[in-house]
Amino acid sequence: MSIDLLLKSICNSADLSEVPIRFGEDKILSEMTPRYEYHEPLTSSAAKAFFILNYYFSNRRMPNQDFEADKAVILKQTLKIAKCFSEICCVKGLANETLNCLGIVQMINFGLWNDSNPLLVLTNEAFDFKYIHEVMFTKQRLPKILNELRNNFCLYKKTQILLDRTRTAIRIELEKVSGTTGSQIFNKNWENQNTMQALHVLVVGIKSGKLYCHDRVVCDKENFEGFVSLFSR
């Protein structure tokens, strides 16, 4: 399932059914231009949530203060729903859907579409770099703002991945390449967010595309060594 279809499913969740539709807001929605088309009636909470999320990810201003206030509620609920969706998809072994749900979680945290330049999370300035790892390893002289920020990113490389003797778990070893261990996520869109950086480890069958297990590793150590159960779903 694609990102836009997952977003529509999330917006149709009961948790968002209490988002108010005030008098005349269906007309406002009809004048908005979201990235993805929406062919359902514009008189529902689901429609409003979908449009507000589209504008939020596109870094566009809301039509009025009521929409801005509703955005805070929608983001909070959508984050919870997307995490629940990722767990459900994981249990069902749906690798692509799990990745897309985790992508939506990141989109909510960062306030960007999944295909946007990730550096926009840190600054609105335009740079030639498209990916964070380019900033980490470039030999070019960096602008001051990027030079200060890149030390806060933790990058790890896998040193070993082995199937254990019982063939029920995978042993994973990760070694930190660069960055400050224990750095918190920096997000210009959310204030007072104290979430530590983490890695998502997914074990997927190359041919089948089936997801066998998923684990989240907090980046609080120089090296990580542990087992991911193949039956953790």
UniProtKB/TrEMBL annotation:
Residues 1-230 form the SEC63 domain. It comes from the Eukaryota. SUPFAM superfamilies: Sec63 N-terminal domain-like. This is SEC63 domain-containing protein. It comes from Trichomonas vaginalis (strain ATCC PRA-98 / G3).
